[in-house]
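Chain A, query sequence.
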Amino acid sequence: DGSFASTSQDSRSRVRRNDGPQSRHQKALDRCLDALNFIPSISSGSRGIGSKETDTFEARISILIPVLTSCYTRHGGSAFLSITGLTDLLRHDFYADDIEMSQDPSSRTTLLDISIQVACDVSTMGAQEAQLYACVEFVEEALKFGCGYLSTRTVGYVLRFFLFVFHFGISSPSGNWGITSASDQYILEDIRSTTNKWALPGGASQSA
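Chain A, predicted structure.
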């Protein structure tokens, strides 16, 4: 029957059109995005809701992305300038919105967390001596600024980072590399707790 043949041909044509290169590309892209679900979402520490806060948060992300990206530049002085730029942003309260005393920091990841993780990651990947000093300076000030309100993943980055710094200081050719500090601070100190001060939420005690 001619009408049945015409209908079948139209159906096959629609299937071919729907399964074109653009459709297959979209399906492949969706599968890739689903595979990235393990990446934690970035959030602001404050709990306020509104268009103004959303715009501010997106503007902060737009400012920070190129800075964090250039931290991984291996040639020239871009990485050093980027790390010192993070320190300048920290001193100008760029990360103030990421500090929220009433929320559990272990359940969220903020821009301050991401910045600390990048600084630690860049250093352990093979930083030069001058660049490493800038990373230590930023991480040290960021820990004080965050008052312990960091994700547990960030705390892990910091612990590995300082272990690397200690070994680097021992093997430094200059022999006099180091950081002078007014007082030592416990990395795992939880200033919010009065009974269990030496443990972070979800973590073991420091003595362990």
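Confidence is low (pLDDT under 50) at residues 1-8, 179-188, 198-208. DSSP finds seven helices and no strands in the chain.
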